[in-house]
Amino acid sequence: MQSGGPDYDVPLGRRDGLSFATRNATLQNLPAPFANAAAILSSLATKNFDPTDVVALSGGHTIGTSHCSSFTGRLYPTQDPTMDQTFAKNLKQVCPTANSSNTTVLDIRTPNKFDNKYYVDLMNRQGLFTSDQDLYTNSRTRGIVTSFAVNQTLFFEKFVAAMVKMSQLSVLTGKAGEIRANCSVRNANNNSLLASVVEEEARSEY
């Protein structure tokens, strides 16, 4: 990664679906920022992710930004007691009202670098979302957060394993799905042509 994260190989050969996921279907598979650790663990367990996977994948919040609406429930009308006072004060300057449309970084220490400082944030009660901070509050995930905070190599290793596992969710096999000529557009009637080209390329490599 240009931001400093780990390089890893993703298994090839995954077919594209014949329809695009709806917004509702997508959101049903993504834990909300206000979800607590118990809810996230339960949700992702249905996809065969264990607590280490969950904490590692959450580490993706080491880079990126968020709209105020995703966390102002922790500031207004009363402050979440698990949030550091100074951190909360600074967030209120960025988001002066509960319905502010401003944005802020997810990781205050190294917002543009993929590293383990996100977990250091959590240990200092500076996680932006409930779904972040509760990973340090919850007894099932607290130790994992700590281990990643003190060992970036371990975090990278577990992040890669979880990402590869996620890339293999609901894989289409046989004649299900298609090999798209353009990843963002369904094929028009050129499935058989594209498949033959791919197969020919594969044969030529042997």
TrEMBL record:
Transmembrane segments: none annotated. It catalyses: 2 a phenolic donor + H2O2 = 2 a phenolic radical donor + 2 H2O. InterPro entries: Haem_peroxidase, Haem_peroxidase_sf, Peroxidase_pln, Peroxidases_heam-ligand_BS. Heme b binds at residue 61. Residues 1-187 form the Plant heme peroxidase family profile domain. Gene3D superfamilies: Peroxidase, domain 2. GO terms for molecular function: heme binding; lactoperoxidase activity; metal ion binding. Its cofactor is heme b; Ca(2+). Binds 1 heme b (iron(II)-protoporphyrin IX) group per subunit. It comes from the Eukaryota. It is an enzyme of class 1 (oxidoreductase). Its EC number is 1.11.1.7. Substrate binds at residue 31. Disulfide bonds join 68-95. Belongs to the peroxidase family. Ascorbate peroxidase subfamily. Removal of H(2)O(2), oxidation of toxic reductants, biosynthesis and degradation of lignin, suberization, auxin catabolism, response to environmental stresses such as wounding, pathogen attack and oxidative stress. These functions might be dependent on each isozyme/isoform in each plant tissue. PANTHER family: PEROXIDASE 16-RELATED, PTHR31517. This is peroxidase. It comes from Gossypium armourianum.
